[in-house]
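[Q] Does anyone have a clean structure-token version of this?
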Amino acid sequence: MNSNVNITQKSALAIISSNTPSTDELVNIAKEIREEHFGKNVIIHILSNAKSGNCSEDC
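[A] Here you go.
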């Protein structure tokens, strides 16, 4: 987690108070936290296999 972003007490309690949160519940909580701090925009980063020969970097 980004140390520059503080999670609200309400969000933290929602995460830890659930006995057995389902994947859907955790995804929804994470979505709410992300939208609260960063809006609805999402940035996707892709890791490329360097051995495939498609890497643009000279490693």
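[Q] Thanks! Anything notable?
[A] Residues 1-44 form one domain.
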